[in-house]
């Protein structure tokens, strides 16, 4: 059947024999009990029931019997009873063994119980996922699940004119000119997709914020979306521009310590909450890349954040303050600047402030070590900002499945409280005992029919949501789930197809690293659009935007010395990591040129010289891209024509792009190394 990708991972292909086959009658009619503290019908429970009915009708040919029941909260497992967001949003799915009175049939009965209706909705999606993933009998399914992180957000970098900054899947989903009167049906489909992953927050507008979003005119539009999203457990947040009191409020200052400024924000918060009682809070990019902020008035980031936090606190809102700050006036290595700026402020933030830090200290490169703030800042809740949209990883043209990159980050050891002090434990609040926990993913969604431009990029939205819910999931499991849910087709179901797609996904990010920025190279992409190579660029007005600032190629060698003989960014990490990464012989090859400037003839543990290894890495990336294309071509006839053709075309372009990266980077670096290409590396034309 036709597949335009709109249904995402919620396609619900028929699992049982289709209704024309003999045996269709044998499909039992399932009974599902939804048990909440009140047992009352609510908009959320209505959605849960509707989802079950539609899904099971598609999967098995007949809808289930769904019943609501009241559950005594004390009878729930402890994990679901605790008085916090995580517990409230968890769920239990278990077989119901004793037949309830009004269940006269002998058909299997399952019970989904939760302390909140949202927990039930998440349980329903988990059940539907499980039914499609395993051949387990319906009545054996037993899952208890609680999210790892309380606030699980998408950040949309959407402008009010419909343009999406770093968006590669069309325009914004939000049709501001139609809101609040006209509601695009797609808003519901978006909220449903979010709920299916357990994502519970959405920041609607770009961090490079337009103050107009906070005007009454726009707040009414935002409220219309919030009203629609509420039943899906999805709360709305907004990016706030620090200078809004001047731009839309007629004040002459935005100084966070000026009483009229604080009063303006308090009134604004009150106005917002009158319209949107469950408003999540503000996301703020301040004093970063030209955005206004507290530094404009000689105030600190903490003073700025706390002023906003005070305005939101009476309403239960939070401030998500971004740590992505660096300045052209600051001559310190850019990757050190956020740490230097924020570490001294640790302990100074209000309790409803969370600091949102990009996974790496630079900017969403194909590979970076984790930001040292995750290890160092102990008294402030720290949130991770991941980039789902592939700004530096081939945008909508290339496959780069990002779960392995995020897992690498989440499982990184900070060592701040000994082994096991992983970044994941910092973010989920357990390592430093913070009840406020949050994760953000910069969205890759847009108005394209298939939501994400590249059909396989849907896997990144999926992977982000699944990891935000449970950061212990493996990349392999996530790839398997997504491939099975997205490509399974009962009529020609072929586990090999799913396995092939899984494998292709799992290697794809490393392939992109290999042909673009291997061995710890970073920021050598083309200027502005960030697509394709540009290591030769050295004439930008800001030196910290020049690729030459980062790769430092010269006749002696390549790489950025961040040890004590160089910028000493290494000193921002725990001693264990300083020892490991500080010595090129023990530094993992993937971070080699991030931390070291090494001679072209430096010999790696593989026996290769640096120059040869660099060439071979680029070559390997090209060969892997070619292999992805030929793997995909073998799926002809096994995947529907629409998605098959779309992906094939994009993979063919990815091969061309990989060759461009290899040839241009190697030819450029060869002007310094002055060495021949090693055997096996195709000389550039
Ligand atoms: C990157 C990106 C910008 C974005 C910025 C941010 O620099 O290129 O478009 O605004 O990150 O995260 O604030």
TrEMBL record:
Active site as annotated: 289 (proton donor), 363 (proton acceptor), 391 (proton acceptor)
Highest taxon listed in the record's lineage: Bacteria
A GO cellular component entry from the record: extracellular region
Residue stretches making up the Glycosyl hydrolase family 67 C-terminal domain: 452-681
Any single biological process term in GO: xylan catabolic process
Gene Ontology molecular function: any one: xylan alpha-1,2-glucuronosidase activity
Domain spans labelled Glycosyl hydrolase family 67 catalytic: 135-451
Alphabetical list of InterPro entries matching this protein: A-glucoronidase_C_sf, GH, Glyco_hydro_67_aGlcAse, Glyco_hydro_67_aGlcAse_N, Glyco_hydro_67_C, Glyco_hydro_67_cat, Hex-like_dom2
Enzyme class: hydrolase
Keywords: Carbohydrate metabolism, Glycosidase, Hydrolase, Polysaccharide degradation, Signal, Xylan degradation
Entry's EC annotation: 3.2.1.131
Domain annotation Alpha glucuronidase N-terminal: ranges: 8-127
Reactions listed under catalytic activity: Hydrolysis of (1->2)-alpha-D-(4-O-methyl)glucuronosyl links in the main chain of hardwood xylans
Keyword Signal: yes
Assembly behavior: Homodimer.
Family: Belongs to the glycosyl hydrolase 67 family.
Protein name: Xylan alpha-1,2-glucuronidase
Species in which this protein is naturally found: Cephaloticoccus primus
Lineage: Bacteria, Pseudomonadati, Verrucomicrobiota, Opitutia, Opitutales
């Amino acid at each position: 059947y036709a597949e335009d990708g709109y249904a995402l991972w919620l396609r619900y292909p028929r699992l049982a024999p289709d209704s024309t086959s003999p045996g269709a009658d044998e499909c039992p009619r399932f009974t599902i009990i939804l048990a909440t503290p009140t047992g009352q019908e609510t908009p959320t429970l209505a959605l849960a029931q509707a989802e079950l009915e539609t899904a099971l009708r598609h999967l098995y040919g007949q809808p289930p019997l769904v019943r609501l029941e009241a559950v005594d909260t004390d009878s729930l497992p402890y994990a679901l009873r605790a008085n916090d967001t995580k517990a409230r949003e968890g769920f239990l799915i278990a077989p119901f063994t004793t037949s309830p009175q009004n269940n006269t049939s002998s058909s299997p009965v399952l019970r989904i119980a939760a302390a909140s209706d949202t927990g039930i909705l998440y349980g329903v999606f988990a059940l539907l996922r499980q039914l499609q993933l395993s051949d387990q009998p319906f009545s054996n399914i037993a899952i208890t699940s609680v999210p790892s992180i309380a606030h699980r957000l998408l950040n949309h970098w959407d402008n009010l004119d419909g343009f999406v900054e770093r968006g590669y899947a069309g325009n914004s989903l939000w049709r501001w000119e139609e809101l609040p009167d006209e509601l695009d049906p797609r808003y519901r489909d978006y909220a449903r997709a979010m709920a299916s992953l357990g994502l519970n927050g959405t920041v609607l507008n770009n961090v490079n914020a337009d103050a107009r979003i906070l005007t009454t005119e726009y707040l009414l539009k935002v409220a219309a979306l919030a009203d629609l999203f509420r039943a899906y457990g999805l709360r709305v947040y907004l990016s706030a521009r620090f200078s809004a009191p001047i731009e839309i409020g007629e004040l002459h200052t935005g100084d966070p310590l000026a009483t009229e400024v604080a009063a303006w924000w308090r009134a604004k918060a009150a106005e917002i909450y009158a319209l949107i009682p469950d408003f999540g809070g503000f996301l703020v990019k301040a004093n970063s890349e030209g955005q206004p902020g507290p530094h404009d008035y000689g105030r600190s980031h903490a003073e700025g954040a706390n002023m906003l936090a005070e305005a939101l606190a009476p309403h239960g809102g939070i401030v998500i303050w971004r740590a992505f700050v660096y300045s052209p006036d600051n001559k310190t290595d850019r990757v050190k600047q956020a740490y230097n700026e924020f570490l001294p402020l640790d302990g100074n933030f209000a309790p409803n402030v969370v600091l949102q830090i990009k996974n790496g200290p630079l900017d969403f490169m194909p590979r970076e070590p984790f930001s040292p703030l995750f290890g160092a800042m102990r008294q402030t809740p720290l949130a991770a900002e991941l980039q789902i949209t592939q700004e530096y990883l081939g945008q909508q043209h290339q496959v780069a499945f990002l779960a392995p990159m995020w897992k690498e980050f989440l499982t990184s050891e900070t060592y701040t409280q000994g082994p096991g002090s992983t970044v994941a434990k910092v973010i989920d609040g357990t390592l430093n005992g913070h009840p406020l926990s949050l994760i953000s993913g910069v969205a890759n969604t847009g108005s394209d029919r298939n939501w994400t431009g590249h059909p396989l990029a849907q896997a990144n939205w999926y992977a982000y949501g699944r990891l935000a819910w449970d950061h212990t999931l493996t990349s392999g499991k996530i790839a398997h789930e997504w491939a099975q849910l997205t490509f399974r087709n009962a009529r020609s179901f072929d586990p090999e197809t799913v396995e092939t797609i899984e494998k292709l996904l799992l290697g794809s990010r490393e392939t992109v690293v290999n042909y673009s920025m291997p061995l710890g190279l970073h920021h050598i992409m083309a200027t502005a659009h960030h697509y394709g190579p540009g290591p030769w660029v050295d004439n930008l007005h800001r030196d910290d935007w020049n690729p030459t600032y980062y790769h430092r190629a010269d006749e002696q060698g390549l790489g950025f010395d961040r040890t004590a003989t160089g910028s000493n960014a290494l000193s921002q990490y725990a001693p264990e990591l300083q020892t490991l990464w500080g010595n090129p012989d023990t530094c993992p090859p993937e971070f080699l040129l991030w931390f070291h400037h090494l001679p072209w003839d430096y010999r790696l543990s593989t026996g290769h010289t640096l120059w040869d290894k660099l060439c071979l890495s680029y070559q390997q990336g090209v060969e892997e891209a070619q292999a992805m294309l030929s793997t995909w071509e073998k799926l002809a006839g096994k995947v529907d024509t629409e998605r098959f053709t779309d992906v094939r075309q994009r993979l063919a372009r990815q091969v061309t792009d990989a060759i461009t990266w290899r040839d241009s980077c190697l030819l450029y670096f060869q002007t310094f190394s002055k060495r021949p290409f090693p055997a096996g590396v195709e000389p550039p034309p």
